[in-house]
Amino acid sequence: HFQLLSNLLKEHGIPWENVYNMDEKGVQMGGGRKNSQEKFFFSREDRMMYRQKGDSLELITIIDCVCADGTAPIKPGFVFAGATKFEEWFEVDNEIMIANSETGWTDDEVGFEWFKKNFVPQATARNHSGKPILLI
């Protein structure tokens, strides 16, 4: 498969900075108290001296995208279960997608929203070569 990818990149002159990989990961929130509207996100570089266990069983999906040149220039998306969006979710960065689905997982509608509103404009803004953009 790597040889096929290499041949495709050479044939179309696609530079590594135009090659992306998208994936999604379901995580359990586990922060805060039951029935609390507070959500907590932590950097993976944070070093905890102790571990707290939350009682929230809420699952969310994180959509993330990295570039083959080693960068992660595309803003992530967060998918929550349910039908309600709270305005305060958008206060951090309006380029981060906040979406809802019945299950909290990515479905066709949410995936298309992330592709159209996050990936296409952000990848296009970085495409200085004018060559095709490849999303794997």
Automatic annotation (TrEMBL):
<dbReference type="Pfam" id="PF03184">
    <property type="entry name" value="DDE_1"/>
</dbReference>
<dbReference type="GO" id="GO:0003676">
    <property type="term" value="F:nucleic acid binding"/>
</dbReference>
<feature type="domain" description="DDE-1">
    <location>
        <begin position="60"/>
        <end position="135"/>
    </location>
</feature>
<dbReference type="InterPro" id="IPR004875">
    <property type="entry name" value="DDE_SF_endonuclease_dom"/>
</dbReference>
<protein>
    <recommendedName>
        <fullName>DDE-1 domain-containing protein</fullName>
    </recommendedName>
</protein>
